[in-house]
Amino acid sequence: MFRRILQSQWKALRLPVILLAVLAFALPLLTVTYGGRLEGAPAGRVAQWLYGAQQIGLLLPGFAVLVGVLTGIGAWTSDHAGKHVYALSLPLSRARYVWLRFAAGAALLLAPTAALGVGSLAAAASVTLPSGVHAYPLQLTARFFLAVLVCYAVFFAISISTRRAALVVLGVIGGLLLADGVLTVMDLRATVTPTVLMWLTNWPGPLSILIGRWALFDV
Amino acid sequence: MSHAIETRGLAYRAGRDFAIRDLALHVPEGSIYGFLGPNGSGKTTTIRLLLGMLRPRSGSISVLGRVVPRDLPAILAQTGYVPERPHLYPHLTVREALQLHAAFYAGFDHGYAAELQAAFALPATRKLSDLSKGEMGKLLVLLALGQRPRLLVLDEPTDGLDPVVRRDVLAALVDFCSQGAAGAATVFISSHLVHELERICDWVGVLDEGRLVAELPMQDFKNGIKRLRLIRAPESVAGAPFVVLNREPSGGEQTWVVRGWEPRMAEWLDAAHAELREVADLDLEDGFVELLRASRAPLA
Q1: Cα end-to-end distance, chain A, whole Å
Q2: Do B188 and B6 meet the contact criterion of CB atoms below 8 Å apart?
Q3: Which helix (DSSP H) or strand (DSSP E) does residue B60 occupy?
């Protein structure tokens, strides 16, 4: 059952997934190309190289969000097209079907993750690092996988939700912004939106995985 | 008589203008039940309620002796469903759609499905998005029949199909019902094409504006609705042993359309000093129209 759903999902999403995998492979290599060669380079040159490599690393959280969005929304495209009638006519509970769909989409995330891992290993192997500088291909890959999984889960949930649920989410966001506006007008120091964002992006907030250092090369 | 489908007091509302009201269906097990009604009468909504896709406001639903929605997976495992509009994933090929569908049904009969695929001349490698309307209709029926279901629910399965495809689909249904292994299978088929159901159904339910107007054996539906030509027709029909669906004056006579007519009932007219000039059969479509007319504007 899972194999057939995975097969169906793969067929629906294979083009974007392959494209994302190619990009995932290329990004770590871009890190190396950007910095040039380091053999016998002076410390200033190494620091500059490291800075350049880390700037490329900043692209990775955004890329993880992109992968999560495309696969999360794509997981439901076929069912949306048929107004979910096929899924609802199948002899299994709705919860089980959702989990099967979720697992199949999560399995597709392995392709860009593996590509990023291979690209990172290739990039790390292509440079001779000076002492004190290290490559972290496996850590970066693991972090990327967790980040895409979180983003995938968020957009998978948003995509399956009803119009009413989407309106509720938008209403909450609007309410937060409105509360901030009111607090500002009243000249109070309390803020709502930054507090919520802080909660989301700081550990153990669900989006904390996207924040922080994403460098393939670091000290 | 046990029922494959039974609803009691079923009510559902969609928006301000449409509602299913106090629906009591009784679909005998092993029957081919035609669910008739004009477009927009609530046939598809009723089917979606029966299959647990919509939640009723009130009332109870029992399908194959189990309770909806509590036992839905078990019910759906024995139910083949052909929806009004194609619902399959368009990026799959015919073969992949078959494989995907079969994965959910333990008893899927691959041999029978292959036979039907050959009979329907469905190319295995063609993408569903490239299938014609007729081919898609055949595929939907193939998938439902391949499950070897105890209950087959078909929502306007031949709507929009050309006569040749329609004949193929109906022939496959009749074959399925006549096979020994599927002896106990119940078929619930909705349509607004009266003549199509006349050929295959043994029970009929008529739905109009969300209400069940009639539910009776097809034989009674065919033979029990008559047009009577009367002279000195009584003003009141109170106590009549039949149901007067419609009465219209024509010259010095009156024409009545009645339901549940039997020849011995002419005695009631004699007793009311009416003279019965003629009893004429109505064809099924006229009977259907008269039922709808009577339900929309009942006689006082």
Answers
A1: 47
A2: no
A3: strand B58-63
Distance between A94 CA and the closest CA of chain B, angstroms: 9
3-class DSSP state for residue A83? coil
Q: What ipTM is given for this predicted complex?
A: 0.81
Compare all CA atoms of chain B with the CA of A84 and give the residue at the minimum distance.
B87
Chain B residue with Cα closest to A8: B92
Q: What tokens appear for A64 in the block?
A: 């993880």
Over residues B31-72, the pLDDT tens digits come to 899 999 888 889 999 999 999 999 999 999 999 999 999 999
Contact (CB<8Å) B77/A78: no
From the list B81, B91, B99, the residue facing A89 with the nearest CB is B81
Residues 13 to 72 of B: which have CB under 8 A from any A CB?
Answer: 51-53, 72
- Mind giving me the DSSP string for A136-157? -HHHHHHHHHHHHHHHHHHHHH
pLDDT of B104: 94
| Cα B179 to chain centroid, rounded | 21
What is the spatial distance between Cα B54 and Cα B13, in angstroms, rounded to a whole number? 10
Partners of residue B87 in chain A, C-beta under 8 Å: 82-83, 85-86, 89
E-state strands within A143-218: 217-218
Please tell me the distance from the alpha carbon of residue B13 to that of residue B10, in angstroms, as a whole number.
10
The verdict on residue A197 lying in a domain is no
Question: Of chain B residues 103-162, which have a CB less than 8 A from chain A?
Answer: 103-105
Distance, in Å, from the CA atom of B273 to the CA atom of B294, rounded to the nearest integer, reads 25
Other beta carbons within 10 Å of A19? 12
Q: Tell me the pTM.
A: 0.82
Tell me how many domains chain A contains: 1
Q: Is A86 within 8 Å of B104 when comparing Cβ atoms? A: no
**Domain with A21 in it:** 2-161+209-218
Task: Quote the minimal CA–CA distance from A116 to chain B in Å.
Answer: 28
**Residue A25 located in a structural domain:** yes
Residues B8, B106: Cα–Cα separation, whole Å: 31
In angstroms, the CA A41 to CA A18 distance is: 37
B92 touches chain A (CB under 8 A): yes
Instruction: Please indicate if any CB of chain B lies within 8 Å of the CB of A11.
Output: yes
The span from the CA of B99 to the CA of B251, in Å, is 66
Does residue A126 belong to any structural domain of this protein?
A: yes
Quick one: pLDDT band at residue A90, thresholds 50, 70, 90? Answer: very high
Q: Which pLDDT value is given to residue B273?
A: 87
Identify the residue whose tokens are 């802080």. Answer: A198
Do the chains contact at A91 and B104, CB–CB below 8 Å? Answer: yes
Chain B residues whose beta carbon lies within 8 Å of the beta carbon of residue A12: 89, 91
Contacts of A81 in chain B (CB under 8 A): 89-90
Residue A130 lies in a domain: yes
Q: State the Cα–Cα distance between residues B91 and A8, nearest whole angstrom.
A: 8
Each residue's pLDDT tens digit, A9-30 = 999 999 999 999 999 999 888 8
